[in-house]
Amino acid sequence: MESIQKIKSLAxxxxxEFIEVRRKIHAHPELGFEEYKTAELIxxxxxxxGISYQTGIAKTxxxxxxxxxxxxxxTIALRADMDALPIDEKNNCEYQSVNKGVMHACGHDAHMxxxxxxxxxxxxxxxxxxxSIKLIFQPSExxxxxxxxAMIKEGVLQNPVPQFILGEHVLPTLExxxxxxxxxxxxxxxxxxxxxxxGKGGHAATPELNINPLLIASHIxxxxxxxxxxxxxxxxxxxxxxxKIAGNGRTxxxxxxxxxxxxxxxxxxxxxxxxxxxxxxIAQSIAQNMGGSCEVFIDKGYPFLVNDIKLTENIKSxxxxxxxxxxxxxxxxxxxxxxxxxxxxxxxxxxxxxGVRNEAKGITSNLHTNTFDIDExxxxxGMGLMAWLACKQ
Length: 393
Fold this sequence. Notes:
Layout: H1 4-27, H2 36-49, E1 52-57, E2 61-67, E3 75-81, H3 108-124, E4 132-138, H4 147-153, E5 164-175, E6 179-181, E7 184-187, E8 189-198, E9 202-203, H5 213-229, E10 239-247, E11 253-254, E12 257-266, H6 269-289, E13 293-300, E14 305-307, H7 309-323, E15 328-330, H8 341-344, E16 349-357, H9 377-391
Parallel strand pairs: 3-4, 3-5, 5-16, 6-15
Antiparallel strand pairs: 1-2, 2-4, 6-16, 7-14, 8-12, 8-13, 9-11, 10-12
């Protein structure tokens, strides 16, 4: 087995190449299931390295294999997501997005660059480790129902079946050079909540003739907040938030219909189902008692993400060995969601965070913002660590 020093040396040697890959991808972002040019770039890079691959998985996804010594002994999967977000980039840099209204504002460009960089390191060392490494480049993480579920349905976790899967995601609140992880439940499930409140519109000056859906909606919103407050699983946080309310009225016009859009985040499937029932019951009963009605549609999204505890403990130990104890951070549960959760529901998984913050360089913007960027030194850290974790299993 190659030493840490050799893997670090290779990561350093290859880092500028994959920083450039990251910049090319960043400048040409594509939305979910539209990552055709991105897939072409990935395929070209894999061919250049000498790694065999299959394209067209779940439309734009790619699966590649690196075979070490005794390739049938075990298989480890490494995953990176490919899609960008519908955001108009405001960064002024040489690799700024050329696709107006589309931006890699969640770091998926860095994820792909790190996985490709790790792949080159692993291919270079393929005669010095046992087993096979399956590389998964997955489309459409950002848009439900997501690419992970589609790739699983198309057999990405079969032929051969991985013993476990690793995923990496940038974290702008964590300094570059560090990683963070957490065993057990880590990221929440996510559901989209759509309420359609119906009343009887009319002139605002004749309220006795109307059934005001805006007033009904306000009562529903206040009542629904009690669901999260009264969560019976106090050790597992719940969020029920509403970010959009729309009624096509005016100062003196009461509309017939008001729509409300929100999200539910939980860490327990039984409570998730119970919360769905409560949302429906409360919204409909309030509307009915006030003379109106409410249609409830809940679009069930990604499940919660769970990191296998034993695997995560092992990954943490290896990360400390590679980066130093001071650069490996324990994380809290997070109410954001990730479709990597689908993999974690199928096989042992570890989803860890790569620090990309650099205050001295002014790189502090949060994910999903139009000024998000990364400290590109994190590419060397990410690709080297991923290769080390794969080699040492």
